[in-house]
Amino acid sequence: MGISGNYKNKGNNMSEFTWSYSSLKQYQNCPKQYYEIRVAKNYTVKENEAMIYGKEVHTALEEYVRDGKPLAKNYLRFKPVVDSLINIKGEKLCEYEMALNYNREPCDFHDKNRWVRGIADLVIVDDDQAYIIDYKTGSNKYPDPKQLKLMAIMLFTQMPDIVKIKAGLLFIMKNSFLNEEYHRSDMDKLWKSFERPLERLEASYDYDQWVPNPTPLCGWCSVDTCEFNRPKTSPF
Q1: Domains in the chain, please, with CATH?
Q2: By the 8 A CB rule, do 226 and 35 touch?
Q3: What is the CA radius of gyration of the chain?
Q4: What pLDDT digit, counting tens, does each position of 28-58 carry?
């Protein structure tokens, strides 16, 4: 039985973990890293220059869209594409927080009974249609729409009047856009895309098994006690 039924009805009988798109992606990349950082909390993620820059850009765009705060000179190149978003009809919601509990019902973002949560960089609500935009400052080489799927699931649940969502990953450094469109009737299909990784994650909690997944990125991992941790070499 998949997530559409299994997770919805298990309640307190299920492993009590919370998740988000980023945490689930980290688990899929390497269960051991996920365990050491998010469960045992033996390590933290070390922020590199790209991560710090990404946060600065997100803050600048949030303040520009929400407050009209002028963009700094080094961010002015993003203005035309962000202005095109501002010109879309509808209410603009920046850094919009959403969360669902174990029964897949809306709850407060900080609710102790939350199951999954996420933050959409920009949501635009226009009657029964909405837009979800996520800013990306990294490469557009391997775009992953799963983040948009999860945001759409939560927005449909939070706002029952929404019947269609247009979503996109905006790679602002590359001036490219990955478009997706979802309908309320797609909900079961959208949930299904998370079924297998969530079942694997639950099994790891149930059996306390966190198998490392060696990749060329191991040299950048903060879990330096792992047997696969190696000196940094370019993964490309």
Answers
A1: 1-46+194-236 (no CATH), 77-193 (3.40.1350)
A2: no
A3: 19
A4: 999 999 999 999 999 998 788 999 999 999 9
